[in-house]
Specification:
Blueprint lengths: L10 E6 L5 H14 L4 E5 L6 H10 L7 H24 L3 E5 L2 H9 L5 H5 L10 E6 L2 H6 L11 H12 L6 E5 L4 H18 L1
Parallel strand pairs: 1-3, 1-4, 2-3, 4-5
The chain binds 3'-deoxy-3'-aminothymidine monophosphate.
3'-deoxy-3'-aminothymidine monophosphate (NYM) binds next to helix 4.
Length: 201
């Protein structure tokens, strides 16, 4: 997807279990790229600002009940509704740093026992990331980090299943980083991966 086209922005995705540090590390990468003068925007999924996103948010907060297939398709629809905007941004040279994407969609739903191929199919046709940063942390370690919040899925037993599903999704765009290193070392490694990736583009 335009990997050798310098005028296009890059799609960089952060993935990992809840409390692995994605949000702060993706924020740090955005600040770093801004300082380097790279046009960049920070994105996240679910995007809770749309009406689909509101339904997801209320489900995650346990304020509404939806069956597993329905919420899976809502998460996917939430990415589809942003697809053309994302494509336009990338085309206009903006790099997008995205906190969670299809890998979360598939891993969290497959962890509930849904068929993984079924989970993947609504993701087909979404934009493929150029670089995936997977912040690797043992579920037990993540649980120790100030504890989970009260949202759905934020439980050790479930996160173990999610971690297993993530492992089946690793592909050539993935860079795995040990999320138990210090915040600064993780940041440093992400910059290195970005540098190698940027040179290769
Ligand atoms: N989540 C996120 C899914 O189950 N499917 C998806 O497609 C996405 C993008 O939502 N526990 C789950 C993972 C998280 C939760 O995400 C909310 P966050 O990053 O905590 O706002």
């Amino acid at each position: 997807n335009g990997c050798n086209d310098k005028s296009r922005g890059s799609l960089i995705v952060f993935e990992g279990l809840d409390r692995c540090g994605k949000t702060s590390q993706s924020g740090r990468l955005v600040s770093y790229l801004e300082k380097k003068g790279v046009p960049v925007e920070s994105w996240r999924f679910p995007d809770r600002s749309t009406s689909v996103g509101e339904m997801i948010s209320s489900y995650l907060a346990n304020k509404s009940q939806l069956d597993d297939q329905t919420v899976h398709l809502l998460f996917s629809a939430n990415r589809w509704e942003k697809r053309s905007l994302m494509e336009n941004k990338l085309r206009s040279g903006i790099t997008l740093v995205v906190d969670r994407y299809s890998y979360s969609g598939v891993s969290f739903s497959a962890a509930k026992g849904l068929d993984i191929e079924w989970c993947k199919s609504p993701e087909r046709g979404l934009l493929a990331p150029d670089l995936v940063v997977y912040l690797d942390i043992a579920p037990e370690k993540a649980a120790e980090r100030g504890g989970y919040g009260s949202e759905r899925y934020e439980q050790l037993e479930f996160q173990r299943k999610v971690a297993q599903q993530y492992q089946t999704l690793r592909d050539s765009a993935w860079k795995v980083i040990d999320a138990c290193l210090s915040v600064d070392s993780v940041e440093e490694q992400i910059r290195e991966f970005y540098g190698l990736f940027d040179k290769a583009v």
